[in-house]
Write a structure and sequence with these properties.
The chain has helices spanning about 1-30, 35-55, 65-95, 95-120. It is an all-alpha fold. The longest helix has 30 residues, at about 65-95.
Length: about 130
Amino acid sequence: MRTFLKAQFSAFAGGLIDYLFMLFFTEICGVFYPVSIVLSGFIGAVVNFTVNKYWTFNAKAEPTDKQLQRFVFMVIGSVALKSGGTYLLTQFIGFDYKWSRLMIDLMVSLGFNFPLQKYWVFNRPKYLGE
């Protein structure tokens, strides 16, 4: 439970930065919101990776490059789910994109990001010869 709570704090920190950059790109720069979500998602991912590696999962033993490779694949999926899901809720249900984004973020964070980070990105079993 402790790891889960730490992961949620990390997700909140990265997510807050991500959300604020999304608003900046969309509201100030005039970028279409699904594109803003992609851009801001990669900015928030930098914060999330750093906090998770060194604090949430305390995964300092494995080389960063191996973790980063897995993390990049996870982030691509996460950003695609967030951008696509937000677009669908906004365009077809009529929610404001800011609220759609928050709802989708919650689902992606709990159902996609956390399990992949916990069991794949930062918790690799050690095999003989590895």
